[in-house]
C-alpha cells in the first residue's frame, strides 16, 4: 500500500528496527531484506529487519495516470493513519511498519507507543521487550520517555530478565500488568518499583514467587510512612500470590502508603495481624478483597472497619470465620460502603443483613449467596432500607422463599441483577419480580421461567 509520489516525504531511518510478534512462517526475504531470525516449530519470536525500501510496483505501467498508481488508502493524510493505528495492538502495529516506508515512519510515531500489550504462551516475551524498548530508545538513548503502560499478562515465558529491561528503559512507567507470569520473582519487582517512581498500577496476580513489594532487597526491612522514599503504587493486585504472609503484607503496607485498591484473593496465609498492619500504614484504602483467606475472622473485620467512610468495596467471600459480629463492625463504621461480597460466609445471619441494611444506605451491590442462615426476614430488612440496591445475589440460599423476593421487588425498583440460582422459589415469585423490576436480569435455574 504505497505510492511513488510519497517517497520524497519520507524520512530515512538508517538503523534496523523490529517488526515483532509475527505468526509462525517460513523464513525468507521480507520487503527486500532478510530476516535476522527464524521461527522454530510453532514458536513466535521477535524479528529485526531494515525499513522497507521498495515502494513501487514493477508490474504497473509507468504511463498509468498518477491517481491510478496507488491504492485508495494512500490518499489518507498522516493524522488519519495515526488515528487508525491507535486502535491496533502491539503485534499488528509492528506488522504495519513492514508495509512501506511511509507506514514504517507512522507506525513508530512516539505518540502510538504509550503502551505495549503482548499476549501468548509461546511468545519470546523477554526478547520482544528488549527489541521493542531498544527501538523506542532510538531517539532518546537508553531511556524511553513515552512508554507508560506495559501489559504482558499470561505471557508465561516472561522472566526477571524481561522486567529488568522494562525497569532500565522505562522510567516513566505508570502501569505494569504481569498477571499469570509465575517465573517473576521479588527481585525483578523490586527493580521495577525502584527505577519507576511514577508506577501507580501493578498487577502481579498469579505470580506465586512474589511475596513482597518494597524499595529494599531485604523484604523484612520496614519504612515508616514519614521516613524515606515511598512507592507511589495506588492499585495493587496480588490475587493468588499464595506465599504472601503477614510479614510481607507489613512491608508492602509500610512502603506503599498511598494504596487505594488492594486485592488479596486466595492469599491463604494471611491472618488478622496482616490486616492490622495494612490499616495502620494505608488509611486511604477504598477497595479491599480478602476473599478465600480462610484465617481472616471478625477481628480482621474490626481492623478493616477503622478505614471508616473511605471504604467503598469489600470482598470477604468464603471467609468461614466471619460472623455477624464482624459484619456489624463494618456496617457501623463503613457507612459509605457500595459493594459487599460475603458469599459463603456461613456465619452470617438475618441480624448481620439487618445491620448492613440500616447503616449502609448507599449499598448498591450485595452478594450473600451460600449463606444458609439468611432468610426472608433478612431480605425484608434489606428491601425496607436499601433503596439504592442494583445487584443482589442469593445463589444457593436455601432459606429464601418467594415471599422474600416479592418484598425486595416491591421496594427495590432500580434492581438490575438478581441471582436466585439453586434457590427454591416458585415461578409466581419470579414473574412478580419481572413485573415490578422491568430492567432486572434474573439468573435462575427454573426451566419453566422464560
UniProtKB/TrEMBL annotation:
Keywords: Cytoplasm, Cytoskeleton, Leucine-rich repeat, Repeat, Ubl conjugation pathway. Residues 51-62 have a biased composition (Polar residues). GO terms for cellular component: centrosome; SCF ubiquitin ligase complex. It comes from the Eukaryota. Residues 50-69 are annotated as: Disordered. Pathway: Protein modification; protein ubiquitination. One of its GO terms (biological process) is SCF-dependent proteasomal ubiquitin-dependent protein catabolic process. The keyword Cytoplasm applies. Signal peptide: none annotated. Pfam families: DUF7885 (PF25372), F-box-like (PF12937). InterPro entries: F-box-like_dom_sf, F-box_dom, FBXL15_LRR, Leu-rich_rpt_Cys-con_subtyp, LRR_dom_sf. Residues 70-116 form the F-box domain. Gene3D superfamilies: Ribonuclease Inhibitor. PROSITE patterns: FBOX (PS50181). It is found in: Cytoplasm, Cytoskeleton, Microtubule organizing center, Centrosome. The keyword Disulfide bond does not apply. Belongs to the FBXL7 family. This is F-box/LRR-repeat protein 7. It comes from Cyprinus carpio carpio.
Amino acid at each position: 500500500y504505497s505510492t511513488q509520489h510519497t517517497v520524497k516525504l519520507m524520512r530515512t531511518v538508517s538503523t534496523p528496527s523490529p517488526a515483532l510478534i509475527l505468526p509462525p512462517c517460513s523464513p525468507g526475504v521480507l520487503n527486500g531484506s532478510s530476516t535476522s531470525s527464524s521461527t522454530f516449530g510453532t514458536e513466535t519470536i521477535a524479528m529485526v529487519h531494515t525499513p522497507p525500501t521498495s515502494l513501487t510496483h514493477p508490474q504497473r505501467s509507468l504511463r498509468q495516470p498518477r491517481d491510478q498508481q496507488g491504492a485508495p488508502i494512500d490518499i489518507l493524510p498522516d493524522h488519519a493513519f495515526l488515528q487508525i493505528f491507535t486502535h491496533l495492538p502491539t503485534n499488528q502495529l509492528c506488522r504495519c511498519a513492514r508495509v512501506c516506508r511511509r507506514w514504517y515512519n507512522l507506525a513508530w510515531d512516539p505518540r502510538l507507543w504509550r503502551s505495549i500489550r503482548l499476549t501468548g504462551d509461546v511468545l519470546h516475551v523477554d526478547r520482544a521487550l528488549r527489541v521493542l524498548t531498544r527501538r523506542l530508545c532510538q531517539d532518546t538513548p537508553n531511556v524511553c520517555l513515552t512508554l507508560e503502560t506495559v501489559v504482558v499478562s499470561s505471557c508465561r515465558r516472561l522472566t526477571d530478565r524481561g522486567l529488568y529491561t522494562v525497569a532500565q528503559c522505562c522510567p516513566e512507567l505508570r502501569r505494569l500488568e504481569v498477571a499469570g507470569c509465575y517465573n517473576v520473582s521479588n527481585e525483578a519487582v523490586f527493580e521495577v518499583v525502584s527505577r519507576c517512581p511514577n508506577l501507580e498500577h501493578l498487577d502481579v496476580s498469579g505470580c506465586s514467587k512474589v511475596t513482597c513489594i518494597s524499595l529494599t532487597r531485604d523484604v523484612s526491612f520496614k519504612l515508616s510512612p514519614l521516613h524515606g522514599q515511598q512507592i507511589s503504587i495506588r492499585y495493587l493486585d496480588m490475587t493468588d500470590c499464595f506465599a504472601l504472609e503477614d510479614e510481607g503484607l507489613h512491608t508492602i503496607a509500610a512502603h506503599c502508603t498511598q494504596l487505594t485498591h488492594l486485592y488479596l484473593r486466595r492469599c491463604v496465609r494471611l491472618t488478622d495481624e496482616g490486616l492490622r498492619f495494612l490499616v495502620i500504614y494505608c488509611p486511604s484504602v477504598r477497595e479491599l478483597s480478602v476473599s478465600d483467606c480462610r484465617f481472616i475472622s471478625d477481628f480482621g473485620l474490626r481492623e478493616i472497619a477503622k478505614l471508616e467512610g473511605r471504604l467503598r468495596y469489600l470482598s470477604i467471600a468464603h471467609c468461614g470465620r466471619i460472623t455477624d459480629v464482624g459484619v456489624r463492625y463494618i456496617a457501623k463504621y463503613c457507612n459509605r460502603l457500595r459493594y459487599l461480597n460475603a458469599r459463603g460466609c456461613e456465619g452470617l445471619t438475618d441480624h448481620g443483613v439487618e445491620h448492613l441494611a440500616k447503616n449502609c444506605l448507599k449499598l448498591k451491590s450485595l452478594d450473600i449467596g451460600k449463606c444458609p442462615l439468611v432468610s426472608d426476614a433478612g431480605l425484608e430488612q434489606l428491601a425496607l432500607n436499601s433503596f439504592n440496591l442494583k445487584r443482589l445475589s442469593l445463589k444457593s440460599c436455601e432459606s429464601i422463599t418467594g415471599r422474600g423476593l416479592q418484598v425486595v421487588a416491591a421496594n427495590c425498583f432500580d434492581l438490575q441483577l438478581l441471582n436466585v440460582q439453586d434457590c427454591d422459589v416458585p415461578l409466581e415469585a419470579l414473574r412478580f419480580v419481572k413485573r415490578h423490576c422491568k430492567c432486572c436480569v434474573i439468573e435462575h435455574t427454573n426451566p419453566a421461567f422464560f
